[in-house]
Amino acid sequence: xxxxxxxxxxxxxxxxxxxxxxxxxxxxxxxxxxxxxxxxxxxxxxxxxxxxxxxxxxxxxxxxxxxxxxxxxxxxxxxxxxxxxxxxxxxxxxxxxxxxxxxxxxxxxxxxxxxxxxx
Length: 119
Fold this sequence. Notes:
Largest sheet: none
Low-confidence stretches: 91-96
Keywords: Membrane, Transmembrane, Transmembrane helix
Structural class: mainly alpha
Order of helices and strands: HHHHH
Shape: globular
Distance between the termini: 33 Å
Mean pLDDT: 53
């Protein structure tokens, strides 16, 4: 229920903003990365990682609403850094590879769309 509710809330509220800003591909990339984390978490039994990720995501969304996208984007970078650090400790090569590919996608989109805050 927590995962389902969080996903729906994230989708409904953030999707409108992404449509306005033309960030369709960015949103898609975020969902793909989230799916990767959830699948790895289930296989490895990382319950605390999933719970912490959702709580952190909720905090970033609240801050983002109050202060605009700046802190939300910054929060996304911090969350990605957290996952990468955990991945290094646990030897999750595929997680690191997937994160690197998605980060590259974000950087390319940021350059094309002029999203300085994203970079």
